[in-house]
Amino acid sequence: MRFYLLLCGFLFHSIVGLAIDESRVINQADILVKRIQKEHVKPRAINDDFGKSVHRLVMQFLDPQHRFFTAEDMQEFERLSASIDQDIEEKKLTYFSVVAKRFETRLSELTTLTQTFLTNPVNLKSTIRVPYSMFDHPALGSKHHERWKQELQLEVMDRMLGLLTDDQDQFPSDSIAVWEKKVRTEITDYYQTTTTELTKNQHVLEDAYLEAIAMAFDPHSLYFSPTQKSEFEEELTPDRELFGFSFGESESEKVIVTDVFPGSPAWLSDELHEGDILKGIQLGKAKMLDLTDPKNDAAAVRDYFDTHDEDEIKLIILDEAGKEREVNLTKARVYSDGDIIKNAVLHGEQKIGYVTLPDFYVNWTDTSALGCSNDLAKCILKLNKENIQGLILDLRGNGGGSLHEAVDLSGLFIDYGPVVAIKDNTGEVEVLKDFNRGSVYNGPLIVMIDEGSASASEIVAGALQDYNKALIVGQRSFGKATSQRIYPLDPNYNELTAFLMEENSDFGYANITGGVLYRVTRNWNQKNGVVPDITLPFRLETGESIREETYENALIPDSITKKMTFTPNAALPVNQLKTASENRVQTSEPLKNYVALLSEYQAMFEKDTILSFDLAAQLKQRNAWQLLTKKLEDFQDSLSVGFEPKANLFDAEIYQANDLMRQYNDKFLERLNTDIELMETVNIMNDLIKSKK
Predict the structure, then answer these.
(1) What's the predicted TM-score (pTM) here?
(2) Helix (H, G, I), strand (E, B) or coil at 217
(3) Angle, vertex CA 80, rays to CA 76 and CA 81, nearest 5
(4) Which of 72, 121, 422, 486 is most buried, by CB atoms within 10 Å?
(5) Does 366 score more than 50 pLDDT?
(6) Over the stretch 53-70, which tens digit does the pLDDT of each residue have?
(7) What is the crossing angle of helices 659-672 and 649-657, to 10°?
(8) What is the model's pLDDT at position 633?
């Protein structure tokens, strides 16, 4: 849905430190640059161009929507960016100090302006119409306050539209004035609360500057605070710390529990259920959020969770029986269904195994635990016992993870040989190989990818494509072919004596790009991505997709001469299978209708270029998007995919005895029944199986 979405308080969430510790920033910047230059695969010179890159990144972090700083501010910052290289070398903060002080000035101005402007009702019937592109650039100082008022006006309208349920295409009678006042109060309170919270975190603005310095080397070299490092490593594990419930608003505008996550503390307590009304929430020792106050709605709850990060929560609820109860929960590590490998048997024209792998996870805290390659091997063994005729490995949306897991996983399908080569910062090229003779699966294989498939996913897809072991289906992948390693920035840390002392985490960490990855053909996926053998035309092309090539400082690999000897299988009948798939898309009613719906969606997107400041016009625009979105949803709900997904027989027995796992699996199978890309991939697999007979 493409109407104006104001990211309320984006700068307040992103930048919450006004008291700058200059000595810390100077010291950290010096250590960070020296460490990256030492370890980076292609370190860049610290010069004026480097300073300009840092500046552009700082502005992307602080003001991505060009709302906060004026055009004159930006011109001044641009001039000062030439001093960043000198600042680092001479241990000064010329550029950063000016930006930080200007931030404080603009923050004070806009906070006061927000409170004043939202005291009175906003104009909901303005005749102003502007192109979306107007907001692609900062306003001149003389127009800055007027621009901010316009954005507050749009925010009020956007929040009002957000109060409508999906089945409402008009505002309830006499609700407009009430809702307008309600959201003005919400926005005012929100900015006031977030401004109050600014002084509680002293390092976020500083960390944004350090992050920009790291990313100026390449998009994947990062600065981590201790907390960010823990969160990054948590992303590569199949569990999370959660309370385990979600919330929303009922038709009567009560904040209610909308879902309880299976296996979570909320689920295990058996005290919290879908439909329970939330009357109060208290995170840790923070002040309780009173949800009996009409101004505190679901948006206020989201803001409350954003502001407070605690491990304990107290909920005052009203259950369906009308009984008020107190529920106390403590966060716990919970298996996340969206981050773990899953499998099914697709019963149709052929019996096809299906495995989806959301990321290349590995357990960072328990080195005795095995990762995703071992889990995939187990899945394949179970599916092989079902006598599957083909296997689909789904890597869509898999952003990568452990490099060694990717190599081990590729080895499940190839007999023996190289998988990927890494060129390090010394110029040495190391070839990572599968040393195990034989394969776990040797039948017809398809790997599904899309633009969200990156890094480790691209290693696997590229290797299996080069070995002619798998047909690659979907969309061109992201194009990240670099490897990173996390280094402590503690200047006293020594890897040789690490077993004697731990690093001081207060110095932070650097995730440094230390290698470029190459396919066994000596070509690379970096910026190029893996090009599928068969492209599926079921994605919108809006011009807003982000791939590695869209980053201005993405690395360009150097060629390598290292010879990698491998023995590919006989070529797959790609042209034959591609032609058959294209014919189906043109003649099959479901596929043809879906492509037509996507074309309609894209045409509306391209036409939707003017932003209206009239609530009625925005409602009409919102309803048009709702109608088209409903068409797509109805299509998916009515889709007959031509196969029936079922659990393999081994797992089916587990689900009978474990209600938690059964719930996970039921939701998983439901998703497969509405997946049109999987539907056509199964058709392609049927053709591939026939071609081998």
Answers:
(1) 0.83
(2) coil
(3) 115
(4) 422
(5) no
(6) 999 999 999 898 898 899
(7) 130
(8) 87
